[in-house]
Each structure stands twice: as C-alpha cells, then as structure tokens.
Specification:
442 residues, alpha/beta, Urease, subunit C, domain 1, TIM Barrel, 2 domains, 9-stranded mixed beta sheet, 16 helices, 24% strand, globular, binds zinc ion
C-alpha cells in the first residue's frame, strides 16, 4: 500500500500528548498542513506515512510547547536595567520613565523579536502578552512564527500611548478589530491593575472582552502594598473589590495573585478566573509567595507566567514551573503538592485552556495544531531515565529544547533558529541598549 505524504514526522523515545494518554514510548507523530494527522507508535506511523521533513529521534522527548500566560515581551530590552528594588520604586523611578522615553512601534517590534527568539529557544510556543504598540509586536511574532494572545494595555493616567482612558480603550478596540480571526495572533484587552484602573475602566474592558469573546488580562493582588492601597481607596481587598463590581469573569487571566484571602480564593474558583503564577518575578521583587497549592485545592485554574524580563530576568517557563513546584512543597510543608505531572500540565495544556485556546493547541492529538517541542535527552543531567515527567520538571533545562514547531512550521531545529536571524536580532538589541543607556545618563 502506498504511503500517505505528510509534511513532518517527529520521532520520540517518549511522546507526552498531555491528554489522558500519559506517555507513548518509541512514538511518532505525523503533521500535515499545520495540523496533527496522527500520534502513535513509531513503527506504525513510519509504515503508513512518508514525510518531507523528519524531526526528533531516538533520544528525544516530544510534548506540547510551554505556555507563558503572563508576560510583557517587549520589556526584554529593559532586562537588567534596574534590579534589587521594591516594585513601586522600580516601576515609578526606573521602568515607567524608561518606557516613556523609549516606547515606540519600532522599539516594541524589535524588542519583541528578541523576546520571540528567547521564547523559541526555551520551548515556549504560546504566550499571553500585555503591553503597548501590540500591532508592531504582532508583526514580529508573525515573522517569528509563534502563537500569542496580545492585550493592548489600558491605564487611567496619560502616557505617550494615550491621553485619556477612553483613548487607550479606543486604541485597544481598534487593535482587536484589526487582528481578530488571525490564525496565530489572538487580540485581548489588558486593564493594568486595580490600583491603575477604576472599576468603570474595568467595566469597559470586560464589556469589550464579552463583545469580541476574547480574554481580559490584568495584574491582581500582586503586593501587600496593593492590598493596602485598594483597601484605603475602596474599603475592600483587590479581588473582593472587583467582585463587588461584578468584574470577575471566566475570560479573565489574573497575573500574580500573591495575597488572596481564603474568601478571595473561593471567589476566584466560583467565577472561573484563571491565575497566572509568576514565582520568579514575585521572589525577585519580594512581592511574596502565592498560595498556589491552596488555590489548586479549591479548584482555581492556575498556569505559569514569567512576567516581563525586567523583573525576572528571563522568559523561561520551564524554569518557573520547576521553581513553583519546589516552592509550593516548602510552603505547604508537603512534598506531594504540585507533583511533576500536575506541574507539567500547568505549564502546557492548562495554559492553553486559560487563554481559551484549548480547542486549537496545548495537547498533541489528531486535529490539533502541530504546536510542539523536542527535548534532547542526550545530556549528562538527564541520565538515567525512570520517569519522563519527573525528568522534564526537575532535571531538564530550557536549553535542552532542541526543536520547536508551531502550526507545522519549524521555528528551531537542532538548536538552530529557522525564522529569525539571530545576529540581526542581537545587533538591534545592542543598538537599542545604547539609546536606553544614553537616556539613563540625561
Ligand atoms: Zn506583569
């Protein structure tokens, strides 16, 4: 019988579909026109399909790409610009002034290219962004070939982006109209935080999110300072404050949630709000440690975010997942919480679910988009292998990712970038850094 032609076959010693099927050993997956045609035993797949491109190999693990559910991609150009400071001082004295001097469509486009290069190299296939000039960032992401949810930021004070709340919202809505329906970019809307957006502003963004069936992405209950500030202004803690105005929805991705009360955890579960846990940013800015294990116990949907590279200082989701698992064990005084399988689900399929994209991506099964990564197991720190979930969460490093494919397009193979020119991206980063430094000295 003649073999069916497909675009890609990826071979794996272990294939983790992240569905009910736990692991397929000596596996392969066939891909055509950007979609997964079949997942199964290597022998079977190779006997029935003829690929144009063969990826993976005997000592490789294949799984869905990591999902970064909270970041500000273009902030990679501010990586390491100001460290070791409290959040408020860091934002008000360093990041916001640098942003007001530097931000432009060109800046965001070039910086997002670097962020994409970094995310590809660490196995991220989908990210949830909140920033400005998302149009320009979208261009860079399309070139890189990644999948992203992009939320135009909304604030209640004027910046170089907009003079009034209504202007931010008009711009955000225009961006949504321009990009809705794109095959890789999903627009969203991003009210920054309860201390920078009034309930009326939140209401407008929630209405837009409902109207276009898109996510709403915000920061929530990030620091003890925020909790006190919202109590002073509104007499309630941040989550109860939004709840009291009917502003919590299933479409909401709330980043951080470091300081929820027991009642607030129940509210998040009842409303179906997704939490993006960003442990490295929370640790570095000394914001605190989010009670993730308690939220999971109450049924809150939690995935991982890196936050921007200015507060992390990288975009490595696997690093966040591994750290989160160990931190929660210590905080809960229970080594069984956030076990390797749960943690890997949070870093992959649950991230896609939080963004409303689980029909398209997040698992490896027939009919889904071919969004996957290959991990090179041929490394001293990955020998021997008893449990592949344990290996990926506790032993592997983002730098072990050797191939990345999104929608059937190879973005990296054998550690080589296929869509972006590394030297060109680095050259732009160096030139922009010089301009940022000149501004710092003035
Ligand atoms: Zn953030």
């Amino acid at each position: 019988m003649a073999k069916t032609e497909v675009d890609i076959i990826v071979e794996a010693r272990y294939l983790l579909p992240m569905t009910d099927t736990e692991v397929i050993s000596d596996a392969a997956m066939a891909v055509k026109d950007g979609l997964i045609v079949e997942v199964g035993k290597k022998e079977d797949i190779l006997s029935r399909y003829e690929p144009k491109t063969l990826l993976g190999g005997n000592n490789r693990a294949v799984l869905p790409g990591f999902v970064n559910t909270h970041t500000h991609a273009a902030m990679v150009y501010f990586r390491g610009l100001a460290d070791d400071l409290p959040l408020k001082q860091w934002l008000e004295e360093h990041i916001w002034p640098a942003e007001s001097r530097m931000l432009s469509p060109e800046f965001c486009r070039d910086a997002t290219e670097l962020a994409c290069l970094e995310m590809i190299s660490s196995g991220v296939t989908l990210f949830n962004d909140m920033y400005f000039y998302e149009d320009a960032s979208a261009e860079a992401i399309k070139k890189a070939g990644l999948r992203a949810v992009l939320g135009a930021g909304v604030l209640d004070f004027p910046t170089s982006i907009a003079q009034s709340t209504d202007e931010y919202i008009e711009k955000a809505e225009q961006f949504i109209k321009d990009w809705i329906g794109d095959e890789l970019i999903m627009p969203s809307i991003s009210p920054h935080a309860p201390y920078t957006c009034s309930p009326e502003t939140y209401k407008k963004t929630i209405d837009i999110s409902e109207r276009y069936s898109i996510p709403v992405h915000t920061h929530l209950s990030e620091t003890a300072w925020e909790v006190q500030e919202i109590k002073n202004r509104y007499g309630k803690t941040p989550i109860e404050h939004l709840e009291s105005h009917g502003l919590l929805t299933e479409r909401m991705i709330a980043a951080h949630v470091v300081w929820p009360t027991d009642r607030e955890i129940e509210i998040l579960a009842e409303r179906g709000v997704s939490v993006s846990h960003c442990p490295e940013s929370n640790l570095k800015l000394a914001s605190g440690i989010s009670p993730v294990y308690r939220m999971l116990k109450k049924g809150v949907h939690v995935s991982f975010g890196t936050d921007g590279a200015a507060s992390n200082n990288d975009l490595d989701v696997l690093g966040e997942a591994s750290l989160a698992s160990k931190l929660q064990k210590a905080v809960a005084e229970d080594p069984t919480v956030l076990d390797a399988k749960t943690t890997l689900r949070m870093a992959t399929c649950l991230g896609a679910e939080a963004l409303g994209l689980s029909d398209i991506t997040g698992t490896l099964e027939k009919g889904k988009s071919a969004d996957f990564i290959v991990i090179d197991l041929d490394k001293p720190h990955l020998m021997p292998i008893y449990d592949i979930f344990s290996h990926i969460v506790y032993s592997a490093r983002a730098s072990d990712v050797c191939a990345v494919v999104v929608k059937g397009r190879v973005l990296m193979n054998d550690y080589e970038f296929k869509t972006l020119d590394k030297e060109e991206v680095f050259g732009k980063a160096k030139r922009w850094a010089m301009k940022i430094m000149e501004g710092q000295r003035v």
